[in-house]
Amino acid sequence: MSVPTPTPAPTPTFIPQPGALLDEMPEDEAVARIQAARAPGGSGLLAAFPPLKNDTALRAAKGLPVSHTPVWAMRQAGRYLPEFRSVRSLSQFFEVCRSPSLASEVTLQPLRRFALDAAIIFSDILVIPQALGVDVVMTPGIGPQIPNRVATPADVETIVKFVGEDYTKCAQSLSYVWEAVALTRMRMNGHCPLFGFCGAPWTIMAYMVQGGGSRNWDHAKAFVLNHPEAAHQLLHVITEVSIEYLVGKVHAGAQILQVFDSNAGELPPHQLKEFSLPYLARIAEGVKARLAADGVEAVPLVVFARGAMHSLDLVAKLGYDVLGIDWTIDLKSARAKAGPGCVLQGNLDPCTLFAPPEVIRQEVRRMLADNGDGSLIANLGHGMLPNHSPEHLGVFIEEIHAVSRAAKST
Ligand SMILES: Cc1c2[nH]c(c1CCC(=O)O)Cc1[nH]c(c(CCC(=O)O)c1C)Cc1[nH]c(c(CCC(=O)O)c1C)Cc1[nH]c(c(C)c1CCC(=O)O)C2
């Protein structure tokens, strides 16, 4: 019997085998290591994390060659997983967010099941309004609700006064998220990179003014038309606090950051240009500048302007490394619009996961063919839905790996 000569891997990156198990660090050991790293004479937190075994998503984000297309799914920690529902049956939504132990547990859940190339810290974009002194509750069956919505310019004034000049101090009220990031990254034991995230200023403002989710966002859209100055004031405060919040996540161990502008598509293009894009640009610039000033290595930045694919050329110029793509455009057209050399993330229609496995595989092949050989982080075009089946997400991940590996080894 002849022994096959091993062919060298095309890149030095670690290749997770399908179903590769997470070799997680026990929580008590992770806590002890974090404490030791932070103690006087300790290494400092960032130096204490175990080395990264699978850097494929980070390489793709930087446009570097990869051995396979990395893949993760927005809302991969969520209600479609029975183990998530079982944690949620015992705790309120924001209690899970506020408990580093529970938040890290649910962040790890999808990594135990699937060969994912990235994790995203479990939290919500609506912790930012809470930091600005605005209550947010999560009502089962309805979603997020803001009992005292921002209805007038005077309400904006109250927020501006509440926050004051010290944005760092304001963001510190979210230090529980930073603790969750540190604990999760330690427990991940170098398995793959950990995303931090926040909502885009326009999306956060829309929830604050609307008082919750909406079909037409009438209050939010009326507000920018009737009170443009107050709208800009509110967007400014959200932006500056979000910069501090994201920088804090990187200090805590986040290795890549995503800004979710889930409501970008609600604005007509000229209003998107006025009320969203400048603030997205400021976040990219602000995060980079603050990290440089702190002597911390820059991390890749991802922007997901959902519903605004018509303005992808403008979004491509905001200072982000990766552009999130929804399912309303094919990756080939997205590349043509965003310009040469762009790195994309997306974009399978989440509802494709309701199809039988062979159809999911076929759609994955179509998506990768559309993409061509440009840098891609595979994802859905929006988040996982509560009625998705975990097995079908598994098929999506497996097929991305199999098809891209086969293509890259030819
Ligand atoms: C708009 C938005 C929100 N939150 C978020 C966005 C932007 C992304 C998007 O557009 O989907 C972001 C978010 N929310 C959640 C995450 C966790 C990380 C992940 O796995 O992606 C992330 C990244 C958990 C969550 N956030 C929420 C859930 C489900 C609620 C629950 O567990 O009871 C999860 C897992 C609740 C939430 N939070 C929000 C809404 C509208 C809802 C209700 C959705 C629903 O009920 O289907 C606001």
UniProtKB/TrEMBL annotation:
<dbReference type="GO" id="GO:0006782">
    <property type="term" value="P:protoporphyrinogen IX biosynthetic process"/>
</dbReference>
<dbReference type="InterPro" id="IPR006361">
    <property type="entry name" value="Uroporphyrinogen_deCO2ase_HemE"/>
</dbReference>
<protein>
    <recommendedName>
        <fullName>Uroporphyrinogen decarboxylase</fullName>
        <ecNumber>4.1.1.37</ecNumber>
    </recommendedName>
</protein>
<keyword id="KW-0963">Cytoplasm</keyword>
<keyword id="KW-0456">Lyase</keyword>
<dbReference type="GO" id="GO:0005829">
    <property type="term" value="C:cytosol"/>
</dbReference>
<dbReference type="InterPro" id="IPR000257">
    <property type="entry name" value="Uroporphyrinogen_deCOase"/>
</dbReference>
<comment type="subunit">
    <text>Homodimer.</text>
</comment>
<comment type="pathway">
    <text>Porphyrin-containing compound metabolism; protoporphyrin-IX biosynthesis; coproporphyrinogen-III from 5-aminolevulinate: step 4/4.</text>
</comment>
<dbReference type="InterPro" id="IPR038071">
    <property type="entry name" value="UROD/MetE-like_sf"/>
</dbReference>
<dbReference type="GO" id="GO:0004853">
    <property type="term" value="F:uroporphyrinogen decarboxylase activity"/>
</dbReference>
<comment type="similarity">
    <text>Belongs to the uroporphyrinogen decarboxylase family.</text>
</comment>
<comment type="function">
    <text>Catalyzes the sequential decarboxylation of the four acetate side chains of uroporphyrinogen to form coproporphyrinogen and participates in the fifth step in the heme biosynthetic pathway. Isomer I or isomer III of uroporphyrinogen may serve as substrate, but only coproporphyrinogen III can ultimately be converted to heme. In vitro also decarboxylates pentacarboxylate porphyrinogen I.</text>
</comment>
<feature type="domain" description="Uroporphyrinogen decarboxylase (URO-D)">
    <location>
        <begin position="53"/>
        <end position="402"/>
    </location>
</feature>
<keyword id="KW-0627">Porphyrin biosynthesis</keyword>
<dbReference type="Pfam" id="PF01208">
    <property type="entry name" value="URO-D"/>
</dbReference>
<keyword id="KW-0210">Decarboxylase</keyword>
